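User: quick one
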Amino acid sequence: MSNLIIVESPAKSQTISKYLGKEYVVASSKGHIRDLKKQGFGRFGVDIENNFKPMYRVLRDKAAVIRELKEAVKKADKVYLATDPDREGEAISWHLYEVLELANRNYERIVFNEITKPALLKALENGRDIDIDLVHSQESRRILDRIIGFSLSSLLQKKIGSKSAGRVQSVALKLIVDREKEIRAFVPEEYWEIYIDFVKNAEKLRAKLTQRGDEKIELKTKADTDEVLSTLTAAYRVREISRKERKKAAKPPFITSTLQQEASTRFHYNAKRTMMIAQKLYEGIELENERIGLITYMRTDSIRLSDQFIMEAKDWIISNLGKEYFAGYYKTNKGKNVQDAHEAIRPTSLRYTPEAVKKFLSADEYKIYSLIYYRAVCALMSAALVEDEKVLIENNGYIFEITGEKVLFAGYLRLFAPYETSSGKALPPFENGEVLENVTPVPEQKFTSPPQRYTESKLIKKMEELGIGRPSTYAITVDTLKQRYYVRMENRSFVPTDQGILTAEKLEQFFSDIINVKYTAEMETVLDEIAIGKKTWYEELRLFYDKFMPLVEFASANMEKIYPVYLDEYCPSCGSQLVIRIGRYGQFVACSAFPKCHYVKKEEKTTNIKCPNCGIGYLVEKVSRKGRWRGKKFYACNRYPECKTTFSTLPGTEEEK
Ligand SMILES: [Zn+2]
Ligand SMILES: [Zn+2]
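Assistant: Done. Structure below.
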C-alpha cells in the first residue's frame, strides 16, 4: 500500500515525512498552482453571465511541479491532501484535486492545526471530502478582489495616476487619510500642570495638583498657575491614604492580529516579518534528534485552546509554580466575525521551553516563540492581585495626588512580567497627617496633542475592531499600502503621501457605497456565511457586481482626468511636452509621447534638506530648461507642483534666490 501526502510547502513536507514510514510519500505543491486568467470582460477571469464561473490557468512556474505530482499520483494507492487548515488551504487542495484529476481516485482531505506526529496520525484517521463551501468562500474573495482591483486600478491609473486600489486596502488607506486630516485640523490648546517634587525614603517622588477643595482643577494660563503658586505655603500635609484591591487577568492566547500587534510594539517587527517567522516555527524546526512544528497554525482568529493543551499546561503550571497559579479557564471574548473552529496560536508542546530550544532558533524566532509560549501558558494562570494606592497631599486647600501599585499575588505575572509593559511602582510608606519636607512646586506649560497617527500595530487593531480584516489579510494589506507609495513611514507611523490622500478622496467621492468600513465588514461576514453554506456565493457576487459596476461607469465618465500633470518643459529627444508621472518609487518626469518616446528625465539628486516652506518635501537638484537661467543648476521642492519653492543655491549655504 503506497500513500501520497500533498502539502503546499517544502518545509512542511520535510517535517511531515519524518513522522511516517516508507509507505508514505510526501510531496509539495510549492504554494498556489492556479489563479484566475486575465481574460473575459474587464480581464476579470470570470464568466459573469454564467454565475461568475471562474476561468483558471496553471501558474507558469508550476508546470513542472504538476507533472511530478501527476506521476506521484499514478503510483499511489491513496492520496491525502494536507494543505493548511483554513479557507486558503482548502482552496489549494481543491485546485490540486481538479488539476490532478482526483475525482475518480482514492483521495481524502486531512487537516491538522499543528505539525506534530500525534496531530498528523489523528488527522490521517479522520479524512474527509473537500469542503466545497470553504472553497467557494475563498474563490469569492479572490473574484471580488480581482473585480474591484482591476476596475479601480485601471480607472485610477488613467485619471489620477494611482497604481492600485482594493477592497480592504482602500478602506485601510481611508482610515490613515482621515486620521491625517484630523491631525492637520487640530488646534493645540494651552494648559498648565503643577507638580510637587519631594524625596521620601531616598526615593524621588512627584505628585500632581488635581483639586481645589472638592473640585477638580483646570489651569488654562500662566496667570491661573501663578495665582495658585502664590497661595501655596511651605506646609504640605498627607490628608488621605486609600487602598483598593484589584484583579488583573492575563490576556487570552495569541491570534494572528494580536501576535502581529505585540511583535510590532515589542520588537518593531512589521506584520509581514512576524508572519514569516511564525510560519517557520509552524512548519518545522530542526532540533537535536527531531524536526517538529513548534507552534500551531499562525493564521487564526480563534482564542480556543485544545483540551489536551489545557491538561498539559495544568500539569506544567502546578508542578513548576504551584496549585494557586492555575486558573483553569480564561475569558473568551469572541467577536462576531470569527473564522471557522480553529485554535489560538500556542506552543505544540510545553516540553519545548524557549530556553531548551533556543540554540536551534534564530534570534527572531526565539523572541517570537517565547512570546507565544508564555502568553499561551499565562492565559491559563491565575489573575494577579494588585493593590492600588492613592495618597492625597494638601496645601492651603489644594490637593495633590500620587498613586502607586503593589502586587499582592503575582499570579500570571510571575511568568509574564518580562513581557508586560511595566505597571506602576509601589509607593514608600506614608502616614496620615504626616508633614512632607523640602517640597518643590514645579509648574509646567503643556499643550493638548492631536490624535496619533496609526502605527502598524494600531492599524491592525483598528481593522480587527472594525471587522474589515482577516488573519490572512492584515499583513498583506499593510504591506501593499507601502508598496504603492500611498503611505510612508515616519517614526514607525503611517503618513499618507499626497497621492495617497488624492486616491482616498477620489474613492470617497465616487465609490463611497463600496469602499467604506460598513460595506467591507459586511462583505467579510458574507464570506464567512458562504464558508458555512449559509449563502450562495454567486448570488452574493451578483449583488455586489450590480451595485459596483454602475459606479465604475459613472466614475469613468465623470472623474476629472488630472494625470499626468503637464509641465512647461519639452522632451529633448522628440520635442513633445514633458509630464509628471507616478511610478513605483514616487514621481518622475517623462515624455508625454510615451509609448512612442521612452524619454525619462534622469532622477534628480535629492538633498537631505527639508523644504523650508512646506516642511514636508525635500529639496532636489534640478537644471533650468528655459529663460535666462537655462542650463543653470537650482534647487526645488520635490513636491512640485503643489509646492513651488525654489532656490538658486542651497538655503543656508549662500544667498538665496
Ligand atoms: Zn519624447
Ligand atoms: Zn515644499
